[in-house]
Write a structure and sequence with these properties.
By secondary structure, the protein is mainly alpha-helical. The chain has helices at about 10-30, 40-60, 65-75, 80-95, 100-110, 115-130, 135-150, 155-175, 180-185, 190-220, 225-240, 245-255, 260-280, 280-290, 295-300, 310-315, 325-345, 350-355, 365-380, 385-400, 405-420, 430-435, 440-445, 450-465; strands at about 470, 475-480. A two-stranded antiparallel ribbon has the order 1-2. A hairpin with a 4-residue loop joins strand 1 and strand 2.
Length: about 475
């Protein structure tokens, strides 16, 4: 089949991306955390317009082609949008039902400050490994851990970094993770073979992150006793705190064990939490609904809610935004998908990746370029699923032609496209976790050590040449690759 994609010089193809970077810097400087309310979306649309203008005016690409690419991108985000709304519902219902306040209350008593960041990272890793979902992990135990960290005097950035590091470690190696399945499929590698190979880079990266969080926790000297006592008093005065409320997370764990789809788990968990709220927190339901239980329940699911706890920090912590609070993120996702579609349909993405591929001469440059492409795709398309598919498809044949097996490609893709998605402010992952944890992406980015180390570890292992596998026509065998480095 003839390739009708125009040959756009890579420097020209960089222009829309450069425009986006400049606009985002200006937007964040001017609006700060309020950029999500529309400024970031506008920057993405302006950048998409630049890409479309270059393609249509300069290289005669038809609007039909560009519009089709944008439509294809937007079609892929439907499941993510649904999950986003359900996360909004579950964050509101788990908070107002007293589930999260109970988890914070008992967590402050169990987890000591000297181990907090280490334990937060480890807990999120275990939950994410079991659930296969970083989003679900952050939206449930992650919210509780943010509260515990604040009570113990840790900055929101450090706590969010520990939560996200653990959540993405578990997501990355869980056989239930959709990104793990997707990466192995794109690389044409059996799932568990892919997971075992990822352990070579993932375990060292996670170990280093855990050590950092442990050292910081052990050296934490903030006086958190008064803050924790104030939080405990505020929670007891505002919510009914009871270990019985922990049956809701237990119910959710059972649903996870049954391997139900993430959307089903979130919906049922939010539904049960709402029913529990009517029984356990009738005073809160009445307050939110102005005397109407039904109104209070509905508002908890879809709107913002606030309870005055007598402690300003705690009051801000237990505020929720519901499904309505996710609308800005959904808006951002659509704009990011439009920008990615404009780059793809206009031929600019192919031009940029083609320019990268021309500099590849061996395993070191191959893996380095793959990792760089995964990060670039996260920034350009704004979606980790698109980034995984795009990165895998670009290099699949090249890995075969150079004699490397598929799992080197699938691992390099996961080490970049999966874990760096949360570090990009306008990416679906970066913006979602920022909204759920109420911490700006750029504030937690420096502390997401697992996510920062993983791409570097992938490149390091490739440079060393440890367990790099070669393929033959009939089988793949482990060989030394020093001669083609």
């Amino acid at each position: 089949m003839k390739d009708d994609t125009p040959r756009i010089p890579w420097l020209i193809a960089l222009v829309p991306f450069a425009v986006l970077v400049v606009l985002q810097v200006l937007v964040i400087k001017q609006f700060g955390s309020d950029a999500i309310d529309g400024a970031s979306q506008t920057a993405l649309l302006f950048s998409a317009a630049v890409a479309i203008a270059i393609a249509m005016v300069g290289y005669k690409v038809s609007w039909k082609t560009i519009n089709g690419a944008i439509g294809d991108n937007i079609k892929t985000i439907g499941p993510a949008v649904l999950i986003l709304f359900l996360i909004g519902a579950i964050s509101g219902s788990w908070m107002m039902s007293g589930v999260v306040p109970t988890m914070i209350y008992y967590g402050m008593k169990i987890i000591t400050p000297s181990l907090f960041l280490f334990m937060a990272c480890l807990i999120c890793a275990l939950v994410s490994l079991i659930t296969g979902s970083s989003w679900t992990t952050v939206a449930t135990v992650g919210i509780a851990l943010i509260g515990i960290g604040t009570a113990h005097g840790f900055s929101a950035g450090w706590t969010a970094g520990a939560i996200i590091s653990g959540a993405y470690f578990g997501d990355k190696i869980s056989p239930l993770s959709d990104t793990t399945v997707l990466a192995s499929s794109v690389g044409e590698v059996p799932l568990f073979k892919h997971i075992r190979y990822m352990l070579i880079t993932t375990v060292p990266s996670f170990t280093i992150a855990l050590i950092i969080f442990l050292v910081v926790s052990l050296n934490h000297s903030a006086a958190s006793g008064a803050q924790a006592a104030s939080f405990a008093e505020g929670l007891q005065n505002s919510f009914v705190i009871s270990p019985w409320l922990l049956l809701v997370p237990l119910f959710t764990a059972v649903l996870i064990a049954l391997r139900l789809p993430a959307a089903v788990i979130l919906f049922l968990s939010a539904l049960v939490a709402g029913m529990v709220m009517l029984v356990a927190q009738p005073h809160i339901v009445a307050q939110i609904g102005e005397g109407s239980n039904f109104r209070g329940l509905m508002l908890t699911y879809y709107s913002s809610t606030a309870i005055d706890t007598g402690n300003e920090t705690l009051t801000n912590l237990v505020q929720t935004r519901g499904m309505k609070g996710m609308l800005s993120t959904v808006f951002l996702i659509f704009c990011a998908s439009s920008f990615g579609g404009a780059l793809t349909g206009g031929g600019m993405m192919k031009s940029l990746t083609g320019a990268l591929a021309r500099g590849i001469s061996g395993r070191r440059s191959l893996v380095t370029t793959t990792v760089g492409t995964g990060l670039f795709a996260n920034m350009a398309t704004g979606d980790q699923y698109l980034s995984i598919v795009l990165t895998g498809n670009i290099y699949k044949q090249l890995y075969k032609d150079m004699g490397f097996e598929g799992r080197l490609l699938s691992r390099s893709t996961e080490d970049s496209a999966t874990v760096t998605s949360v570090l990009v402010p306008w990416n679906t992952c970066g913006m979602t976790q920022s909204m759920v944890l109420k911490v700006p992406t750029l504030e937690f980015l420096p502390y997401c050590f697992f996510n920062l180390i993983s791409p570097l570890m992938s490149i390091t292992v490739a440079f060393i040449g440890y367990k790099i596998f070669r393929r033959t026509d009939d089988e793949e065998t482990e060989q030394s690759t020093t001669t083609i480095a």
